[in-house]
TrEMBL record:
<keyword id="KW-0474">Menaquinone biosynthesis</keyword>
<dbReference type="InterPro" id="IPR000073">
    <property type="entry name" value="AB_hydrolase_1"/>
</dbReference>
<comment type="similarity">
    <text>Belongs to the AB hydrolase superfamily. MenH family.</text>
</comment>
<dbReference type="InterPro" id="IPR022485">
    <property type="entry name" value="SHCHC_synthase_MenH"/>
</dbReference>
<comment type="function">
    <text>Catalyzes a proton abstraction reaction that results in 2,5-elimination of pyruvate from 2-succinyl-5-enolpyruvyl-6-hydroxy-3-cyclohexene-1-carboxylate (SEPHCHC) and the formation of 2-succinyl-6-hydroxy-2,4-cyclohexadiene-1-carboxylate (SHCHC).</text>
</comment>
<dbReference type="GO" id="GO:0070205">
    <property type="term" value="F:2-succinyl-6-hydroxy-2,4-cyclohexadiene-1-carboxylate synthase activity"/>
</dbReference>
<dbReference type="Pfam" id="PF00561">
    <property type="entry name" value="Abhydrolase_1"/>
</dbReference>
<dbReference type="GO" id="GO:0009234">
    <property type="term" value="P:menaquinone biosynthetic process"/>
</dbReference>
<protein>
    <recommendedName>
        <fullName>Putative 2-succinyl-6-hydroxy-2,4-cyclohexadiene-1-carboxylate synthase</fullName>
        <ecNumber>4.2.99.20</ecNumber>
    </recommendedName>
</protein>
<comment type="subunit">
    <text>Monomer.</text>
</comment>
<comment type="pathway">
    <text>Quinol/quinone metabolism; menaquinone biosynthesis.</text>
</comment>
<feature type="domain" description="AB hydrolase-1">
    <location>
        <begin position="15"/>
        <end position="244"/>
    </location>
</feature>
<keyword id="KW-0456">Lyase</keyword>
<comment type="pathway">
    <text>Quinol/quinone metabolism; 1,4-dihydroxy-2-naphthoate biosynthesis; 1,4-dihydroxy-2-naphthoate from chorismate: step 3/7.</text>
</comment>
<dbReference type="InterPro" id="IPR029058">
    <property type="entry name" value="AB_hydrolase_fold"/>
</dbReference>
């Protein structure tokens, strides 16, 4: 699996890897890295199925984290990581499988997967249904996705920002998006809950106040991570780096510099 990536060398000794969410590509994380550029080198990656990374075939979350680990070791050795939503799940897999490669982590609206077998099967069914909908009528799927309660907190976001987000979603390839759900979606990926107590590096957990599901998930994660700290962002929903960009940037920068 060959990952498409972009490296911004700012002359720093430290590099931050940014991993995007579902229905997006690396460009969607440029805002998340805006406050970091003067202090860190920036590594942006297109996750499998999105942007210009083409995976294909039968692969799983372990294969995704293996590919990212190979990229990191090829040039940087170890990095800091910021993962949003789907990218946060990938980041957790890296923390569990390659702890020596990650210096610190920011997990934004992320989860370690689903531990309950019945709930996992139900999510696999939902992921398959969503994949079918994507392949049937991608634009209609995006329309429905944007109406989800998960994103209703974006009503106050400026229209040009929401337009850029929608443009980025529509630019993705339906086959790749569907493939990502089947191969490393929340339902099919393994659970990493049991690995959290073994992750010793500093971890900043971020959840939006209006994103109740992920507030609950991250409260449980904080209890299990030895060096984890949860910050709940007032007024924000799922996409914190867009809905509360300045607060997100300052908080992440302070954590990475101080952590």
């Amino acid at each position: 699996m060959e990952l498409n990536y972009r490296f911004e060398d700012n002359g720093s000794e430290e590099t931050v890897l940014l991993l995007h969410g579902f229905l997006a590509d690396m460009s969607s994380m440029e805002t998340a890295g805006a406050h970091l550029w003067e202090h860190f080198n920036i590594l942006l990656v297109d996750l499998p199925g999105f942007g210009d990374t083409k995976a294909g075939g039968d692969y799983r979350m372990d294969d995704v984290s293996d590919a990212i680990a190979a990229l990191i070791s090829s040039r940087w050795g170890a990095v800091h990581i910021i993962g949003y939503s789907m990218g946060g799940r990938v980041a957790v897999s890296l923390l569990a499988s390659y702890p020596g490669m990650i210096k610190s982590a920011v997990l934004e609206s992320a989860s370690p997967g689903i531990s309950d077998p019945t709930a996992r099967k139900a999510r696999q069914k939902l992921d398959r249904e969503r994949a079918d909908s994507i392949l049937t009528d991608y634009v209609s799927f995006i329309d429905g996705w944007e109406r989800m309660g998960l994103f209703q907190s974006q009503d106050s976001v400026e229209e040009d920002q929401k337009a850029r987000q929608r443009e980025n979603r529509l630019a993705q390839k339906p086959a790749g998006a569907a493939e990502s759900l089947i191969n490393y979606g929340t339902g099919i990926q393994q659970s990493y809950w049991q690995d959290l107590p073994e992750i010793s590096i500093p971890v900043l957990l971020l959840a939006g106040e209006k994103d109740g599901k992920f507030v609950t998930i991250n409260q449980k994660m904080e209890e299990l991570l030895p060096n984890g700290r949860l910050e709940i962002i007032p007024g924000a929903g799922h996409n914190i780096h867009m809905e509360a960009a300045d607060k997100f940037g300052i908080m992440v920068l302070e954590f990475l510099i101080g952590g």
